Amino acid sequence: MKGRLLVFQVTSRRLQLISEKEILGAAYCMLPFDGKLLVGVNAKVHLFSWSDKESSSSHSGRSLTSLCSHHGHVLSLFITSRGEDILVGDLMRSITLLRYKPLEQRIEEVARDYNPLWVTAIDIMDNGIFLAAENSHNLVAFTASSVHSGKIGDEEDRLLTVGEYHLGDFVNKFTRGTLAMKLPESDSLKIKLNFDPKEMETDDDPKEHILNIPSNLPSTIFGTIGGSIGVIAQLPQDIFVFLQRMQFKMQSTLSGVGKLKHDVFRTFSNERRVGENKGFIDGDFIESYLDLPQETMTLIADGIGVSAKDLTKIVEAIQRATH
């Protein structure tokens, strides 16, 4: 099976074909990359440049020229990039992290997830976090130690799973951005705690800690086939641990509809395995705290070790920073 890459130019409000490139397969995805073009063609990822080299299929004296490629996939359905890093989402083989070496003009494999995963959308977040959605309505977050160290070897060729979460809807698109208006840094919230969230379980002599909630958080927007739009925001470690503790307390205090347990519903589950929900906080569940009766709010806040007033401020600050 053969396919074509078609290059058009807008001339007098009309599309004019100026070049075409025959390829050995179907092009499933394309992405602008460093002034070039990344294309997922069947099991390969190709990198093309727009050159002045003439070809028989060029109508403008310029054409697409193949610089390098990487193979090792079933079907390269999704491609995204950040800097020199390229993330590929495969039909069955989960995700693979690649890196482009411009001086050598080659694409090398940095790390991959060896677990089977039917990927439906991918994204690269800050701090070396790689995000994937799969066909069983789950979200999975990965990291790779080689991303920052630059070391590539047998011990560092695996993407590590750091988060799993059952969303309950089929995600078909990630895009970097936010639903919240960008706020000045002066709008960040500082709450004084009588304990350090990261040392709650181990510190016999709790120390005071300032919980600083930024007015803006790095985030990714996702869309689902059910018509939902959602936000995945990255949280500082102390805020994540605090909200995780709050989530645990709410789960033990509140009863779901039909006695369905929140933690059971959010458990990662697909055709091959079931795993615990980790690395994610359910923002909708946390925000539901604001709609609870006052006595229930106080019960949850006391269980965490803060006042209901401060806990309300924290939840409202997270709400403002994300949507």
Notable traits:
41% strand, elongated, alpha+beta, Methylamine Dehydrogenase, Chain H, 21 strands, 4-stranded antiparallel sheet, DNA polymerase, domain 1, 323 residues
**Poorly predicted tracts of residues:** none
| Biggest sheet overview | 4 strands, antiparallel
How do the strands line up in the largest sheet? Answer: 3-4-5-6
The number of helical segments is: 6
Number of structural domains: 2
Structural class: alpha+beta
Strand-residue proportion: 35-45%
How many E strands? Answer: 21
CATH architecture of the largest domain: 7 Propeller
Distance between the termini: 46 Å
What's the helical proportion of residues? 10-25%
- In CATH, what is the class of the largest domain? Mainly Beta
- Reading the helices and strands in chain order gives EEEEEEEEEEEEEHEEEEEEHHEEHHH
**Broad shape:** elongated
Provide the gyration radius in Å: 23 Å
Mean pLDDT: 89
Topology-level CATH name of the largest domain? Methylamine Dehydrogenase, Chain H
- Report the CATH superfamily of the largest domain: YVTN repeat-like/Quinoprotein amine dehydrogenase
Compact overview of the structure:
By secondary structure, the protein is α+β, with helices and mostly antiparallel strands. The protein has helices at 146-149, 237-253, 262-265, 283-287, 294-304, 308-322, and strands spanning 3-11, 14-23, 27-33, 36-41, 44-51, 63-71, 76-82, 85-90, 95-101, 106-112, 119-124, 129-134, 138-143, 160-166, 171-176, 189-193, 209-213, 219-224, 229-233, 268-269, 274-275. The protein has 2 domains: 3-176, 7 Propeller (Methylamine Dehydrogenase, Chain H); 185-215 and 235-322, DNA polymerase, domain 1 (Orthogonal Bundle), CATH 1.10.150.
